[in-house]
Amino acid sequence: MPIFSAWDGTALACHLRGDGEPLVVLPGGPMRASAYLGDLGGLSAHRRLVLLDLRGTGESAVPRDPATYRCDRLVDDVEALREHLGLERMDVLAHSAGGSLAMLYAARHPERIRRLVLVTATPWALGLPATPEDRLAAARARAHAPWFSGAFPAFEAWLTGTGDFADAFLPFFYGRWDAQARQHAAREEAQTNQEAADRYGSPGAYDPPATRAALARLTAPVLALAGELDGGPRPDLVRRAADAFPTAEFAVQPGAGHYPWLDDPEWFVRRVAAFLDGPA
Fold first, then answer.
1. Is 165 a member of any domain?
2. Nearest CA to 28 among 261, 275, 266, 264?
3. What is the pTM of this model?
4. What is the b/e burial string over 241-272, where b = at least 16 CB atoms within 10 angstroms of the residue's CB?
5. Is the pLDDT of residue 260 over 70?
6. 95-111 per-position pLDDT tens digit
7. Is the peptide bond before 30 cis (omega within 30 degrees of 0)?
8. E strand or H helix at 26, and its extent?
9. In whole angstroms, how far apart are CA 214 and each of 15, 46, 47, 201?
10. What CATH number corresponds to the domain at position 15?
11. Whose CB has fewer CB within 10 Å in the chain, the N or C terminal residue?
12. Residue 105 near residue 79, CB atoms below 8 Å
């Protein structure tokens, strides 16, 4: 497990899995330790995954200044990782909330991105949040599921501000609520730094007009991948985010939720690997 120093001296950790050309992986949460990503459904057979534990998560140290948990401040940590790896340009995959961090990095350092994969990425950096209405509409489409009646009221209460986050509605985040999904969901709370998560999108983190203007000049290919059943973000929101990039591909993984590498690993790996290995 390599350890390197951030711009402010905070010790950061990354985890290496697999062989081949490196693929830098930015976790979501926000501020969830990278362990939940596993080997991304077997993508490690095609690339050497470099999974970053963002400051204050996983094996990375807690910074002296908690204000540095803000998304735009984390861009410098991603750049420190690139320098540590000795890469002139790098392929980057970002999941969920990590998508906004990847967008800010690409906007600030476009010359350092070779290819960018955004997996069920939340496009806060573009001023495109996943609304409660979006999430509830996606949830209602799963009314046939045996767990729906016990999960939907709690989900609706959380999204409308009358209830707290609850384990009862975690099935909505997965395409298949099987033993593997249950095991994955059970580890979520232990892997997240809640203080850091609360500061991730704090005031000043995002400047959507400036980010859009910068990304309109990005020449690197981009893959924006949505899960068909995901509500945050729904496929249409992912497509709208893809429109911010000049050379973006948009793909929807059938039957997938927010963690598509769990729902159909073969489909996920095949699609992502084909993009990463595509022509320059």
1. no
2. 261
3. 0.96
4. bbebbeebebbbbeebbbbbbbbbbebbbebb
5. yes
6. 999 999 999 999 999 99
7. yes
8. strand 22-26
9. 30, 31, 28, 20
10. 3.40.50.1820
11. C
12. yes
> Are the C-beta atoms of 105 and 86 separated by less than 8 Å?
no
Give the whole-angstrom CA distance, residue 63 versus residue 42.
32
Residue 218 forms part of a structural domain: yes
112, HSE (Cβ side, Cα atoms, 13 Å)? 22
Tell me the residue range of the domain where 258 lies: 3-132+192-276
Q: For residues 60 and 13, is the Cβ–Cβ distance under 8 A?
A: yes
d(CA 22, CA 20) in angstroms, rounded, equals 6
- With respect to residue 143, please indicate whether it lies within any of the assigned structural domains: no
Count of the separate structural domains present in the chain: 1
Rounded to whole angstroms, the Cα distance separating 111 from 74 reads 18
Q: For the beta carbon of residue 128, count every other beta carbon within 10 angstroms.
A: 17
Max CA separation in the chain (angstroms)? 51
Q: What is the pLDDT of residue 187?
A: 81
Which candidate, 3, 63, 12, 10, places its Cα nearest to that of 33?
Answer: 12
On whether residue 201 sits in a domain, the answer given is yes
* Sole residue written with tokens 């990005």: 218
Q: What is the pLDDT of residue 226?
A: 98
Here the tokens at position 131 are 């609304």
Q: Which amino acid is at 219?
A: T
pLDDT tens digit string along 36-63? Answer: 999 999 999 999 999 999 999 999 999 9
Burial class of residue 189 (count of CB atoms within 10 Å of its CB; 0-12, 13-18, 19+): exposed
User: What does the alpha-carbon distance between residue 17 and residue 23 come to, in Å, rounded to a whole number?
Assistant: 10
C-alpha 277/C-alpha 52 separation (Å) is 22
